[in-house]
Structure formats: C-alpha cells, structure tokens
C-alpha cells in the first residue's frame, strides 16, 4: 500500500519515491503506483494535486482499491526512484478553500444545527449545500464570525481518536465511517471527520468572502471564496467599479446615486418615446379605418407598445396586426375580438419565419420583416 505523505506533512511539496508499477491507461497516458506519495487524490470535494513525477506530468490522482493512482503523460520504469514535485500554489489554494469551508460549515452547524450535505471546490467558487434555510443576512453574520476565527489564528488540528474517545467525541460527518476516523478540529469553529488536507493555522486562510446564498432543494447553497482567490475576486470587482466611476465622472461612493439618476432619466425618456410612438401609430391607424383586416407597421413601437397598439387597432375590425421595430426581425401582435387567433398565428409564424403565441384574443411574437400589404394579403386569404 502507498504511504501517504500528505497526512504526515501537509506542507511537503517535494519528495522521492520508488515506482512500484506503471501500466498504460490510454494513448500517451499511464497509471503509476508509488511506494509513497505526497500527491493528494481527488475526494471529499477536494481537487487532486497536480505537478511532476520524474520526467512526467501528473494529470490526475485518484484512490482506487486502497491505492493512490497517478495519471501521468510519460512512461516511468518500475523499481526506479523518481522525484515528485507538487504544484504548490494549487495545493495551498485548495487548503485555504477547504479550511475556510470547515470554519463556515462548523459555525452554521453550531448556530442552526444544519448539516453540510454537499461540498465542492469549483473553478468559480466554493459551494456548500445545507439542509436548512439561511437568509443572506444570517450568512453575512456567519461570514463575519468566520473571519474572526481566521484573525484569531488558532491551530488547525487533525488526529485519529482511539476507540474510547471516538465513542464520546461530538463531530460532524456526512456518513458513517468504518475503520480509522480522521478528525479535523478548529477550536471555536468546527470538529469534523475529514480525509482532506488543511493549513496549520487559521490565519493562513487570509479571509473568507461570501459570494451569495440561493435556494437549493430543501435548503440553501452558499458560495464563498477564501484566501488569495477571495483577494483576486475583490480586485476584479474593484477594477470594474473604477471603470464605472470613471465612466460616470463620479466618486466611487456616489456611483449608486448617479446610476439611480440615470435610470430615472432613462425611464422618463422611455415613457416619452412610448407616448410619441403611440401618437405616430395613431396617425397611421387612421388610414386603416373601415378595413376588415387592418395592418400597421411602426418602427418606433417596441415591447408592450406593440400589444397596446394592436388592441386599439382591433376595435371594430375582424382582425388587426401591428408590427414594430426597425430591424430585420420585428415584433408582432395579432388581435381579434371575433375569433381565436391562435391557430392562425401558428400558420402565420410558419409562413413568415417567426414564432409566437398567446391568448385566444391576442398573440405576440417575432417574424421576419415584410411589407404590410404582403402581410395583409396573407391574413385576408387565410383568416
């Protein structure tokens, strides 16, 4: 069996080992077994270590049948000693995320009694799934408490309790564990069964940054970032904020007020444009009076304005169609107070490369822009 150096010294970034076995996996890839390894295999929500082994790149590491299998991109000779070098920046970041997750989950368990039923270190964030509901305000309070644990710089302990201690030890665990029980304990925050790698002290986590809380199954999914990843995310947000306040010619602390003012002004302009569009439409609609099938196109009409215009145009008519927009694809609203327009709409959309649907008296959607007389002729022939 492989000696697991990552449990003896989680800060061991380089080591020497003897190749016990090397067998082909697929073209250009081999599975290597060593007598000892510092490469952590993927498991428990934690990424596998990557790096180099002899002259090969380590592409993945998994545990199978009690063995640690290294997937490499070059063949290694059994019986030969090789030097292993772990991608330490990746490992340290993973340990920051994992230790930070333990603190957050432990504090949630202490305060609410919820279990962490799912944990994953993703490329964008660390996610934790809890089997109970937590508000954003409560999650922010946990975030603050977790960072206070970080600033206290307490040691992160791991140990295998003897059978007597195990019977009385209170700890978190996602499942029943047979055999040796490895415990990770963070004083004041968490005691949890865990097979992963962790930092020596909480201060090395640096910080925990809450990204969000969302409803997930019967509980919530909480997303966080820890350590350097949290810092880099904050830098990205700060860079975007600097772009915004430069565009607004405003101080950062005034950006929200300036944006609100701009949104209010845009809302006023949209209302004015809508009023002007309806006035323009009404002048066009006058030419349709007396027609059984009425068709009007108005470039200025958009959104709900198209439906409102169709409702007006249909008064006293058998069928009314309004299209709006200045592009190659235009919005439409087909309206009638005398017939169910839904079957007609299906054929209409098929004829003019569109899609849409709605209620019996009015349907809406998009079609390719066509001449109004072409549309009128089709409606007259197919109504």
What does this structure look like?
This protein is of the alpha+beta class and 383 residues long. The protein has three domains: 3-86, Elongation Factor Tu (Ef-tu), domain 3; 92-235, Threonyl-trna Synthetase, Chain A, domain 2 (Threonyl-tRNA Synthetase, Chain A, domain 2); 269-382, Diaminopimelate Epimerase, Chain A, domain 1 (Roll), CATH 3.10.310. The chain contains nine helices and 20 strands. It has helices at residues 5-8, 88-112, 136-152, 163-168, 227-247, 255-286, 304-313, 342-351, 372-382; strands at residues 3-4, 14-26, 29-34, 36-37, 51-53, 56-64, 67-72, 81-86, 116-121, 126-130, 157-159, 183-186, 190-193, 208-216, 219-226, 293-298, 319-324, 329-335, 355-358, 362-368. It has a six-stranded antiparallel beta barrel with strand order 2-3-7-6-5-8. The protein has a five-stranded mixed sheet with strand order 16-17-18-20-19, with helices on both faces. The N and C termini lie far apart (79 Å). The relative contact order is 0.08.
Task: Outline the fold blueprint.
Elements: E1 3-4, H1 5-8, E2 14-26, E3 29-34, E4 36-37, E5 51-53, E6 56-64, E7 67-72, E8 81-86, H2 88-112, E9 116-121, E10 126-130, H3 136-152, E11 157-159, H4 163-168, E12 183-186, E13 190-193, E14 208-216, E15 219-226, H5 227-247, H6 255-286, E16 293-298, H7 304-313, E17 319-324, E18 329-335, H8 342-351, E19 355-358, E20 362-368, H9 372-382
Parallel strand pairs: 1-4, 16-17
Antiparallel strand pairs: 2-3, 2-8, 3-7, 5-6, 5-8, 6-7, 9-10, 10-15, 11-12, 12-13, 14-15, 17-18, 18-20, 19-20
Helix pairs in contact: 2-3
